[in-house]
Design a protein that fits this description.
Order of helices and strands: EHEHEHHEHHEHEHH
Strand content: 15-25%
CATH topology: Rossmann fold
Helix content: 25-40%
CATH architecture: 3-Layer(aba) Sandwich
CATH class: Alpha Beta
Shape: globular
Number of helices: 9
Structural class: alpha/beta
Radius of gyration: 17 Å
Oligomer: single chain
Number of domains: 1
Strand order of the largest sheet: 3-2-1-4-5-6
Largest sheet: 6 strands, parallel
Length: about 210
């Protein structure tokens, strides 16, 4: 089974990688691909350009088994949408189960995504829920979760797509915003960012106050 974890990774930090590793191990995925986005439609523009964020990602996962990078969104022309990305992945993986990993906060806003109700036709949705996070209790997203939820990990391997699985993971109170603020104020980011990425950040003074 293949896992996909998208994001701006602006910059990548250890909570991103722990999420990928936790989900991979719990769901027994063959690999999790990190998919950097050039400029997400529903979030602020990244502060650092895509090639630099990609370099940081490569440095961050170097030597980590089971993690890889998928660059297809960076290679796309024009705005990227998750539904189009999944269609592209599905062209490559016709029958392999594909698991799209999203956080509970993203799940709560899922109905704002382009063609959101069709995502489940192309992939399983893995909702990574940290302590204290809440899922919608009513509305169209809640209805989709109720209709497609399955607590069995084995269900993910029984079909290529169509299951929503909620995965409770440990909380790491680390955010890209906090990392950027520390860099801007010249404060240490040791043990918040993977060492390979940290060295690039410090050497090139990325996110430093201008």
């Amino acid at each position: 089974m293949l896992g996909l974890l998208g994001g701006t990774f602006d910059p990548v930090h250890v909570a991103h990688l722990r999420l990928a590793i936790e989900v991979r191990e719990r769901l027994e995925l063959d690999e999790v691909r990190l998919m950097p986005a050039p400029r997400p439609r529903l979030r602020d523009a990244p502060q650092v350009d895509a090639p630099t964020r990609l370099r940081l990602l490569h440095a961050a996962i170097h030597g980590v088994p089971g993690l890889a990078i998928d660059e297809r969104e960076l290679a796309a022309s024009g705005p990227t949408r998750t539904i189009d990305t999944l269609r592209s992945v599905r062209d490559d993986e016709s029958t392999r189960p594909v698991c799209l990993i999203i956080g509970a906060d993203a799940a709560a806003r899922l109905d704002r995504w382009h063609e959101w109700e069709r995502l489940i036709e192309l992939a399983h949705l893995i909702i990574a829920r940290r302590p204290g996070s809440q899922l919608p209790s009513n509305g169209p997203v809640a209805a989709l979760i109720e209709r497609c939820a399955d607590t069995r990990v084995s269900a993910l391997g029984e079909q290529p797509a169509g299951v929503i699985h909620i995965c409770d993971i440990p909380g790491l109170d680390i955010s890209a915003t906090a990392v950027r603020e520390r860099l801007a104020h010249g404060r240490s980011i040791e043990f918040l960012v993977p060492e390979g990425a940290r060295q690039i950040l410090m050497k090139e003074k990325l996110y430093a106050a201008r």
